Amino acid sequence: MGIFDSVFGKKEKSVKEKKELPWVQLESQAQLEEIKENSKNKTQIIFKHSSTCGISRMVLNMFTKSYDTQLDIVPHFLTIQSHRAISNAIAEEFGVRHESPQLLVIKNKEVVFHTSHGAISDTDLKEYL
């Protein structure tokens, strides 16, 4: 840093590392049965995202930043615009009204918790292991 930088207060920019989650893309209705079966051994979550909604994008970003990658959970990601039929099947199969963004926690073949919008970022997934 040069003398002018220290006098005029130039600060070094920090580069933020973008966190990536190990999402399993939910792209077929057959996967729903797999999710149910797999939930007998390991908690599964489904994040339903609207690619055209700013609130959904904001909630997804907050969820991603706070997600603990050490949790023994399999995260599934559904973009509802691409797979509306799957979203409808989720609502019917698990008896949960469709919302987006929406988070569903599946354990032992059942939804044990679900929430939507800003409440998603307040969810403590450790409670569902």
What do you see in this structure?
- With 129 residues, the protein is α/β, with parallel strands linked by helices.
- It is globular, with a radius of gyration of 19 Å.
- The protein has a 5-stranded mixed beta sheet, with helices on both faces.
- The protein is built from 4 helices and 5 strands; from the N terminus they run αβαβαβαββ.
- It has helices at residues 3-8, 30-38, 54-66, 84-94, and strands at residues 24-25, 43-49, 73-79, 102-107, 110-116.
In short:
The chain has helices spanning 3-8, 30-38, 54-66, 84-94, and strands at 24-25, 43-49, 73-79, 102-107, 110-116. It is α/β, with parallel strands linked by helices and 129 residues long.
Task: Give the helix/strand layout.
Layout: H1 3-8, E1 24-25, H2 30-38, E2 43-49, H3 54-66, E3 73-79, H4 84-94, E4 102-107, E5 110-116
Parallel strand pairs: 1-3, 2-3
Antiparallel strand pairs: 2-4, 4-5
Q: Numbering strands along the chain, what is their spatial order in the largest sheet? A: 1-3-2-4-5
Quote the CATH topology. Glutaredoxin
Mean pLDDT: 90
The CATH superfamily is: Glutaredoxin
Computed over alpha carbons, the radius of gyration is: 19 Å
Number of helices: 4
User: Unreliable stretches, pLDDT < 50, 5 or more residues?
Assistant: none
Measured as a percent range, the helix fraction is 25-40%
| CATH class term | Alpha Beta
Tell me the structural class. Answer: alpha/beta
What is the name of the CATH architecture? 3-Layer(aba) Sandwich
Strand content: 15-25%
Largest sheet: 5 strands, mixed
The overall number of domains is 1
What is the number of strand segments?
A: 5
Distance between the termini: 49 Å
